[in-house]
Sequence to fold (423 residues):
Amino acid sequence: MAQSDVLIVGGGLAGLCCARRLHQCGRSFTLVEASDALGGRVRTDLVDGYRLDRGFQIYLTAYPEGRRVLDLEELAPRKFSRGALIWYGGKLRRLTDPRTDPLSAPGSLFNPIGTFRDKLRLLSLQWKVEKGHAEQTFEPGERMTLDFLRRNGGFSDAMIDRFFKPFFGGVFLERELTTSSRFFRFVFRMFTSGDAVVPRDGMQEIPRQIARQLPESSILLNARVDSIGPGRATLGNGTILTAKTVVVAVEGPEVARLLGEAVPTPKFNGCTTLYYTTDRPPLDEPLLVLDGEGTGPVNNLVVMSAASKAYAPPGVSLISATVIGISSDDDAGLDRKCRTQLTKWFGESVGGWQLLRVYRIPNALPNMSGLALEPPQRAVRLGDGLYICGDHRDNGSIDGSMVSGFRTAQTIVNEMPTVGAGG
Fold:
Protein backbone atom coordinates (compact mmCIF):
# COMPACT_ATOMS: atom_id res chain seq x y z
CA MET A 1 0.00 0.00 0.00
CA ALA A 2 1.18 3.54 -0.69
CA GLN A 3 2.50 5.47 2.26
CA SER A 4 -0.24 7.50 3.97
CA ASP A 5 -0.32 10.54 6.17
CA VAL A 6 -1.72 8.51 9.08
CA LEU A 7 -1.58 4.84 10.00
CA ILE A 8 -4.50 3.68 12.19
CA VAL A 9 -4.07 0.39 14.06
CA GLY A 10 -7.50 -1.02 14.92
CA GLY A 11 -10.81 -1.03 13.04
CA GLY A 12 -13.29 -0.64 15.88
CA LEU A 13 -15.60 2.35 16.21
CA ALA A 14 -12.83 4.65 17.46
CA GLY A 15 -10.50 3.78 14.60
CA LEU A 16 -13.31 4.11 12.05
CA CYS A 17 -14.39 7.51 13.35
CA CYS A 18 -10.78 8.66 13.37
CA ALA A 19 -10.46 7.56 9.73
CA ARG A 20 -13.77 9.22 8.85
CA ARG A 21 -12.66 12.60 10.19
CA LEU A 22 -9.24 12.37 8.55
CA HIS A 23 -10.91 11.55 5.23
CA GLN A 24 -13.25 14.54 5.61
CA CYS A 25 -10.20 16.77 6.17
CA GLY A 26 -8.35 15.46 3.13
CA ARG A 27 -5.73 13.44 5.01
CA SER A 28 -4.79 10.05 3.63
CA PHE A 29 -4.78 7.07 5.97
CA THR A 30 -4.26 3.34 6.14
CA LEU A 31 -6.45 1.48 8.61
CA VAL A 32 -5.12 -1.90 9.71
CA GLU A 33 -7.44 -4.43 11.40
CA ALA A 34 -6.34 -7.79 12.79
CA SER A 35 -9.66 -9.60 12.29
CA ASP A 36 -11.67 -10.43 9.18
CA ALA A 37 -14.11 -7.50 9.51
CA LEU A 38 -14.42 -4.02 10.93
CA GLY A 39 -16.30 -3.16 14.11
CA GLY A 40 -14.10 -4.27 16.98
CA ARG A 41 -16.40 -5.32 19.81
CA VAL A 42 -19.46 -4.22 17.79
CA ARG A 43 -19.84 -7.36 15.68
CA THR A 44 -22.77 -9.53 14.64
CA ASP A 45 -22.43 -13.19 13.67
CA LEU A 46 -24.90 -14.86 11.30
CA VAL A 47 -25.52 -18.38 12.63
CA ASP A 48 -28.14 -20.63 10.98
CA GLY A 49 -30.31 -17.63 10.14
CA TYR A 50 -29.92 -15.96 13.57
CA ARG A 51 -28.14 -12.66 14.09
CA LEU A 52 -26.02 -12.89 17.22
CA ASP A 53 -24.42 -9.70 18.46
CA ARG A 54 -21.20 -10.42 20.30
CA GLY A 55 -22.68 -9.74 23.68
CA PHE A 56 -26.00 -8.01 24.35
CA GLN A 57 -25.62 -4.48 22.99
CA ILE A 58 -27.96 -1.60 22.35
CA TYR A 59 -27.67 1.80 20.75
CA LEU A 60 -29.10 4.91 22.44
CA THR A 61 -30.55 7.34 19.91
CA ALA A 62 -29.79 10.34 22.13
CA TYR A 63 -26.01 9.84 21.82
CA PRO A 64 -24.72 13.30 20.73
CA GLU A 65 -21.85 12.03 18.55
CA GLY A 66 -24.02 9.35 17.02
CA ARG A 67 -26.53 11.97 15.91
CA ARG A 68 -23.72 13.76 14.11
CA VAL A 69 -22.07 10.72 12.52
CA LEU A 70 -24.81 8.18 11.78
CA ASP A 71 -27.77 8.07 9.44
CA LEU A 72 -30.13 6.49 11.95
CA GLU A 73 -32.96 6.06 9.46
CA GLU A 74 -30.72 3.98 7.20
CA LEU A 75 -30.01 1.63 10.12
CA ALA A 76 -33.76 0.92 10.42
CA PRO A 77 -33.67 1.02 14.24
CA ARG A 78 -35.97 -1.24 16.22
CA LYS A 79 -37.00 0.02 19.65
CA PHE A 80 -36.98 -1.71 23.00
CA SER A 81 -39.89 -1.04 25.33
CA ARG A 82 -39.29 1.51 28.05
CA GLY A 83 -39.26 0.22 31.61
CA ALA A 84 -38.47 -3.32 32.75
CA LEU A 85 -39.84 -6.51 34.24
CA ILE A 86 -38.09 -7.20 37.52
CA TRP A 87 -37.99 -10.59 39.25
CA TYR A 88 -38.55 -10.06 42.95
CA GLY A 89 -40.45 -11.93 45.63
CA GLY A 90 -41.44 -14.81 43.37
CA LYS A 91 -43.00 -12.63 40.66
CA LEU A 92 -42.09 -10.57 37.63
CA ARG A 93 -43.09 -6.99 38.41
CA ARG A 94 -43.31 -4.20 35.85
CA LEU A 95 -41.58 -0.87 36.38
CA THR A 96 -42.71 1.65 33.78
CA ASP A 97 -41.98 5.19 32.73
CA PRO A 98 -45.24 7.02 33.47
CA ARG A 99 -44.43 9.61 30.81
CA THR A 100 -44.62 6.99 28.05
CA ASP A 101 -46.84 4.33 29.63
CA PRO A 102 -49.40 6.13 31.80
CA LEU A 103 -51.85 3.22 31.83
CA SER A 104 -49.38 0.96 33.65
CA ALA A 105 -48.11 3.70 35.94
CA PRO A 106 -50.48 3.14 38.90
CA GLY A 107 -49.49 -0.50 39.29
CA SER A 108 -45.84 0.40 38.91
CA LEU A 109 -46.00 3.13 41.55
CA PHE A 110 -47.22 0.79 44.27
CA ASN A 111 -45.27 -2.40 43.53
CA PRO A 112 -42.48 -3.45 45.95
CA ILE A 113 -39.68 -2.36 43.61
CA GLY A 114 -38.84 0.56 45.89
CA THR A 115 -41.19 2.90 47.70
CA PHE A 116 -43.76 5.33 46.35
CA ARG A 117 -41.28 8.13 47.10
CA ASP A 118 -38.59 6.28 45.15
CA LYS A 119 -40.78 6.36 42.04
CA LEU A 120 -41.29 10.12 42.45
CA ARG A 121 -37.56 10.60 42.98
CA LEU A 122 -36.94 8.66 39.79
CA LEU A 123 -39.06 11.17 37.87
CA SER A 124 -37.25 14.02 39.60
CA LEU A 125 -33.88 12.58 38.61
CA GLN A 126 -35.03 12.29 35.00
CA TRP A 127 -35.99 15.95 34.92
CA LYS A 128 -32.70 17.03 36.52
CA VAL A 129 -30.36 15.15 34.20
CA GLU A 130 -32.22 16.30 31.09
CA LYS A 131 -31.46 19.96 31.83
CA GLY A 132 -28.72 21.74 29.87
CA HIS A 133 -26.33 20.14 27.39
CA ALA A 134 -25.40 16.45 27.55
CA GLU A 135 -21.75 17.35 28.09
CA GLN A 136 -22.69 19.06 31.37
CA THR A 137 -23.37 15.65 32.93
CA PHE A 138 -19.58 15.19 33.01
CA GLU A 139 -19.01 18.35 35.05
CA PRO A 140 -17.20 18.07 38.43
CA GLY A 141 -18.87 16.24 41.26
CA GLU A 142 -17.25 12.82 41.07
CA ARG A 143 -18.30 9.92 43.29
CA MET A 144 -19.44 6.34 42.98
CA THR A 145 -22.83 5.85 41.37
CA LEU A 146 -24.00 4.05 44.52
CA ASP A 147 -23.16 7.07 46.69
CA PHE A 148 -24.77 9.42 44.19
CA LEU A 149 -28.03 7.46 44.26
CA ARG A 150 -28.10 7.36 48.06
CA ARG A 151 -26.97 10.89 48.88
CA ASN A 152 -27.98 12.99 45.89
CA GLY A 153 -30.93 10.94 44.75
CA GLY A 154 -32.25 9.93 48.16
CA PHE A 155 -33.19 6.45 46.92
CA SER A 156 -33.88 3.63 49.34
CA ASP A 157 -31.72 0.51 49.48
CA ALA A 158 -34.72 -1.44 48.16
CA MET A 159 -34.89 0.68 44.99
CA ILE A 160 -31.14 0.51 44.51
CA ASP A 161 -30.94 -3.25 45.02
CA ARG A 162 -34.02 -4.19 42.99
CA PHE A 163 -33.77 -1.74 40.08
CA PHE A 164 -30.56 0.28 39.83
CA LYS A 165 -28.15 -2.57 40.50
CA PRO A 166 -29.52 -4.98 37.89
CA PHE A 167 -30.37 -2.30 35.30
CA PHE A 168 -27.19 -0.23 35.46
CA GLY A 169 -25.16 -3.23 36.52
CA GLY A 170 -26.02 -4.57 33.08
CA VAL A 171 -24.89 -1.28 31.51
CA PHE A 172 -21.65 -0.96 33.51
CA LEU A 173 -21.09 -4.74 33.76
CA GLU A 174 -20.66 -4.44 37.53
CA ARG A 175 -23.50 -4.60 40.07
CA GLU A 176 -21.75 -2.86 42.98
CA LEU A 177 -22.25 0.49 41.20
CA THR A 178 -18.70 1.68 41.86
CA THR A 179 -18.75 3.26 38.38
CA SER A 180 -18.28 7.03 38.11
CA SER A 181 -21.41 9.04 38.85
CA ARG A 182 -20.47 11.28 35.92
CA PHE A 183 -20.92 8.36 33.56
CA PHE A 184 -24.13 7.35 35.30
CA ARG A 185 -25.61 10.81 34.80
CA PHE A 186 -24.67 10.75 31.12
CA VAL A 187 -26.10 7.28 30.47
CA PHE A 188 -29.25 7.98 32.50
CA ARG A 189 -29.85 11.08 30.39
CA MET A 190 -29.35 9.08 27.20
CA PHE A 191 -31.95 6.53 28.29
CA THR A 192 -34.53 9.12 29.32
CA SER A 193 -34.17 11.53 26.39
CA GLY A 194 -34.06 8.99 23.56
CA ASP A 195 -34.79 5.39 22.67
CA ALA A 196 -32.85 2.18 23.22
CA VAL A 197 -32.65 0.42 19.85
CA VAL A 198 -30.83 -2.11 17.72
CA PRO A 199 -30.35 -1.74 13.97
CA ARG A 200 -32.75 -4.07 12.18
CA ASP A 201 -29.93 -6.31 10.90
CA GLY A 202 -27.71 -6.27 13.98
CA MET A 203 -25.30 -4.00 15.78
CA GLN A 204 -22.52 -4.46 13.23
CA GLU A 205 -24.54 -2.32 10.83
CA ILE A 206 -23.24 0.69 12.80
CA PRO A 207 -19.54 0.22 11.93
CA ARG A 208 -20.50 -0.95 8.44
CA GLN A 209 -22.29 2.31 7.78
CA ILE A 210 -19.25 4.33 8.87
CA ALA A 211 -16.91 2.14 6.81
CA ARG A 212 -18.95 2.76 3.66
CA GLN A 213 -17.88 6.41 3.85
CA LEU A 214 -14.20 5.41 3.57
CA PRO A 215 -12.12 4.38 0.55
CA GLU A 216 -11.81 0.57 0.49
CA SER A 217 -8.23 0.85 -0.74
CA SER A 218 -7.25 2.41 2.58
CA ILE A 219 -8.44 -0.54 4.70
CA LEU A 220 -6.37 -3.66 5.36
CA LEU A 221 -8.07 -6.63 7.08
CA ASN A 222 -6.55 -9.82 8.55
CA ALA A 223 -3.39 -7.87 9.34
CA ARG A 224 -2.26 -8.17 12.96
CA VAL A 225 0.30 -5.61 14.07
CA ASP A 226 3.17 -7.13 16.03
CA SER A 227 4.98 -3.95 16.99
CA ILE A 228 4.84 -0.17 16.68
CA GLY A 229 7.73 2.23 16.36
CA PRO A 230 8.21 5.87 15.33
CA GLY A 231 6.33 6.29 12.06
CA ARG A 232 5.83 2.60 11.42
CA ALA A 233 3.99 -0.60 12.30
CA THR A 234 5.31 -4.10 11.69
CA LEU A 235 2.77 -6.77 10.74
CA GLY A 236 2.92 -10.43 11.72
CA ASN A 237 4.14 -11.41 8.24
CA GLY A 238 7.04 -8.97 8.48
CA THR A 239 5.52 -6.23 6.32
CA ILE A 240 6.40 -2.75 7.55
CA LEU A 241 3.87 0.04 7.06
CA THR A 242 5.06 3.62 7.42
CA ALA A 243 3.44 6.98 7.98
CA LYS A 244 4.33 10.25 9.61
CA THR A 245 1.67 9.64 12.24
CA VAL A 246 0.51 6.44 13.96
CA VAL A 247 -2.78 6.09 15.84
CA VAL A 248 -3.27 3.18 18.24
CA ALA A 249 -7.02 2.46 18.20
CA VAL A 250 -7.18 -0.93 19.89
CA GLU A 251 -8.78 -2.03 23.17
CA GLY A 252 -6.95 -1.74 26.49
CA PRO A 253 -5.05 -5.07 26.64
CA GLU A 254 -3.80 -4.59 23.09
CA VAL A 255 -2.62 -1.10 23.98
CA ALA A 256 -0.46 -2.64 26.69
CA ARG A 257 0.92 -5.23 24.26
CA LEU A 258 1.83 -2.66 21.62
CA LEU A 259 2.96 0.25 23.78
CA GLY A 260 4.01 -1.39 27.04
CA GLU A 261 3.49 -0.01 30.52
CA ALA A 262 4.36 3.53 29.47
CA VAL A 263 0.68 4.10 28.66
CA PRO A 264 -1.61 3.31 31.61
CA THR A 265 -4.72 1.46 30.52
CA PRO A 266 -7.76 0.73 32.65
CA LYS A 267 -9.03 -2.58 33.83
CA PHE A 268 -11.94 -3.95 31.85
CA ASN A 269 -15.27 -5.43 32.89
CA GLY A 270 -16.39 -8.61 31.19
CA CYS A 271 -19.64 -10.42 30.50
CA THR A 272 -20.97 -13.74 29.30
CA THR A 273 -23.93 -13.84 26.92
CA LEU A 274 -26.00 -16.94 26.20
CA TYR A 275 -28.26 -17.06 23.15
CA TYR A 276 -31.28 -19.37 23.15
CA THR A 277 -33.93 -20.12 20.55
CA THR A 278 -37.48 -21.33 21.05
CA ASP A 279 -40.83 -21.38 19.27
CA ARG A 280 -42.52 -20.37 22.55
CA PRO A 281 -40.93 -17.05 23.64
CA PRO A 282 -41.41 -16.01 27.27
CA LEU A 283 -42.44 -12.49 26.18
CA ASP A 284 -43.97 -11.05 23.04
CA GLU A 285 -42.52 -7.57 23.57
CA PRO A 286 -38.92 -6.29 23.56
CA LEU A 287 -38.84 -5.58 27.30
CA LEU A 288 -35.78 -6.03 29.50
CA VAL A 289 -36.16 -8.58 32.30
CA LEU A 290 -33.97 -8.00 35.36
CA ASP A 291 -32.89 -10.09 38.33
CA GLY A 292 -34.02 -7.91 41.25
CA GLU A 293 -32.81 -10.43 43.82
CA GLY A 294 -29.25 -10.97 42.59
CA THR A 295 -29.42 -14.68 43.37
CA GLY A 296 -28.76 -16.23 39.97
CA PRO A 297 -26.20 -16.00 37.21
CA VAL A 298 -28.50 -14.16 34.76
CA ASN A 299 -28.57 -10.41 35.38
CA ASN A 300 -30.78 -9.46 32.45
CA LEU A 301 -32.67 -11.11 29.59
CA VAL A 302 -34.46 -9.90 26.49
CA VAL A 303 -36.19 -11.45 23.46
CA MET A 304 -34.13 -9.95 20.65
CA SER A 305 -36.48 -11.09 17.89
CA ALA A 306 -39.32 -9.21 19.59
CA ALA A 307 -37.36 -6.03 18.84
CA SER A 308 -36.27 -6.99 15.31
CA LYS A 309 -37.72 -9.97 13.45
CA ALA A 310 -34.51 -10.10 11.40
CA TYR A 311 -32.68 -11.51 14.42
CA ALA A 312 -34.31 -14.95 14.01
CA PRO A 313 -35.78 -17.09 11.21
CA PRO A 314 -39.57 -17.05 10.78
CA GLY A 315 -41.52 -18.96 13.42
CA VAL A 316 -38.85 -18.98 16.11
CA SER A 317 -37.49 -16.47 18.63
CA LEU A 318 -34.02 -15.43 19.79
CA ILE A 319 -33.40 -14.83 23.48
CA SER A 320 -30.32 -13.11 24.93
CA ALA A 321 -29.35 -13.75 28.57
CA THR A 322 -26.45 -11.82 30.12
CA VAL A 323 -24.22 -12.90 33.00
CA ILE A 324 -21.99 -10.18 34.44
CA GLY A 325 -18.36 -11.27 34.44
CA ILE A 326 -16.74 -14.38 33.00
CA SER A 327 -18.20 -17.52 34.53
CA SER A 328 -15.78 -20.20 35.70
CA ASP A 329 -18.31 -22.89 34.67
CA ASP A 330 -18.07 -24.51 31.28
CA ASP A 331 -20.86 -23.78 28.82
CA ALA A 332 -22.93 -26.79 29.83
CA GLY A 333 -22.63 -26.03 33.53
CA LEU A 334 -23.47 -22.36 33.08
CA ASP A 335 -26.44 -23.28 30.88
CA ARG A 336 -27.83 -25.56 33.62
CA LYS A 337 -27.56 -22.82 36.24
CA CYS A 338 -29.19 -20.27 33.98
CA ARG A 339 -32.07 -22.60 33.12
CA THR A 340 -32.68 -23.30 36.81
CA GLN A 341 -32.97 -19.57 37.48
CA LEU A 342 -35.04 -18.80 34.38
CA THR A 343 -37.46 -21.66 35.05
CA LYS A 344 -38.49 -19.77 38.18
CA TRP A 345 -39.19 -16.73 36.02
CA PHE A 346 -40.95 -18.33 33.06
CA GLY A 347 -41.90 -21.89 33.98
CA GLU A 348 -41.04 -25.33 32.62
CA SER A 349 -41.02 -24.19 28.98
CA VAL A 350 -37.45 -22.97 29.57
CA GLY A 351 -36.36 -26.62 29.48
CA GLY A 352 -37.26 -26.72 25.80
CA TRP A 353 -35.08 -23.77 24.81
CA GLN A 354 -32.13 -24.61 22.56
CA LEU A 355 -28.76 -23.09 23.42
CA LEU A 356 -27.27 -21.59 20.25
CA ARG A 357 -24.02 -20.03 21.41
CA VAL A 358 -22.17 -18.69 24.45
CA TYR A 359 -20.01 -15.57 24.15
CA ARG A 360 -17.39 -14.85 26.80
CA ILE A 361 -16.15 -11.29 26.45
CA PRO A 362 -13.48 -10.47 29.06
CA ASN A 363 -12.80 -6.94 27.76
CA ALA A 364 -16.32 -5.76 27.06
CA LEU A 365 -16.11 -2.31 28.70
CA PRO A 366 -13.45 -0.25 30.46
CA ASN A 367 -13.93 -0.21 34.21
CA MET A 368 -14.87 3.36 35.15
CA SER A 369 -14.66 3.06 38.91
CA GLY A 370 -13.09 5.64 41.19
CA LEU A 371 -11.64 8.66 39.41
CA ALA A 372 -11.66 7.02 35.97
CA LEU A 373 -13.36 10.10 34.49
CA GLU A 374 -11.15 12.63 36.21
CA PRO A 375 -10.69 14.27 33.79
CA PRO A 376 -13.64 13.15 31.62
CA GLN A 377 -11.37 13.07 28.54
CA ARG A 378 -7.79 11.83 28.62
CA ALA A 379 -4.98 13.02 26.36
CA VAL A 380 -4.83 11.43 22.91
CA ARG A 381 -1.31 12.57 22.00
CA LEU A 382 1.37 10.24 23.37
CA GLY A 383 4.42 11.77 21.72
CA ASP A 384 5.80 12.95 18.41
CA GLY A 385 3.77 11.26 15.72
CA LEU A 386 2.03 8.84 18.11
CA TYR A 387 -1.62 9.09 19.16
CA ILE A 388 -4.23 6.92 20.82
CA CYS A 389 -8.03 6.64 20.80
CA GLY A 390 -10.71 4.35 22.18
CA ASP A 391 -13.48 4.29 24.75
CA HIS A 392 -10.82 4.04 27.46
CA ARG A 393 -9.80 7.62 26.57
CA ASP A 394 -13.34 9.03 26.93
CA ASN A 395 -16.09 6.81 28.37
CA GLY A 396 -17.18 3.21 28.00
CA SER A 397 -19.96 3.65 25.46
CA ILE A 398 -20.47 3.64 21.72
CA ASP A 399 -20.62 7.41 21.93
CA GLY A 400 -17.36 7.52 23.88
CA SER A 401 -15.61 5.43 21.23
CA MET A 402 -16.86 7.65 18.43
CA VAL A 403 -15.97 10.88 20.21
CA SER A 404 -12.48 9.60 20.96
CA GLY A 405 -11.84 8.79 17.31
CA PHE A 406 -13.01 12.25 16.26
CA ARG A 407 -10.92 13.98 18.94
CA THR A 408 -7.78 12.14 17.89
CA ALA A 409 -8.25 12.88 14.20
CA GLN A 410 -8.98 16.53 14.86
CA THR A 411 -5.87 16.84 17.03
CA ILE A 412 -3.77 15.34 14.23
CA VAL A 413 -5.29 17.68 11.63
CA ASN A 414 -4.66 20.70 13.85
CA GLU A 415 -1.03 19.71 14.36
CA MET A 416 -0.46 18.67 10.71
CA PRO A 417 -2.08 21.48 8.73
CA THR A 418 -0.64 20.49 5.37
CA VAL A 419 -0.85 17.18 3.53
CA GLY A 420 2.15 15.03 4.39
CA ALA A 421 3.75 11.97 2.93
CA GLY A 422 0.58 10.71 1.26
CA GLY A 423 -0.12 13.95 -0.62
Observations:
- The first helix runs from residue 13 to 24.
- The mean pLDDT is 92.
- The first strand starts at residue 4 and ends at 9.
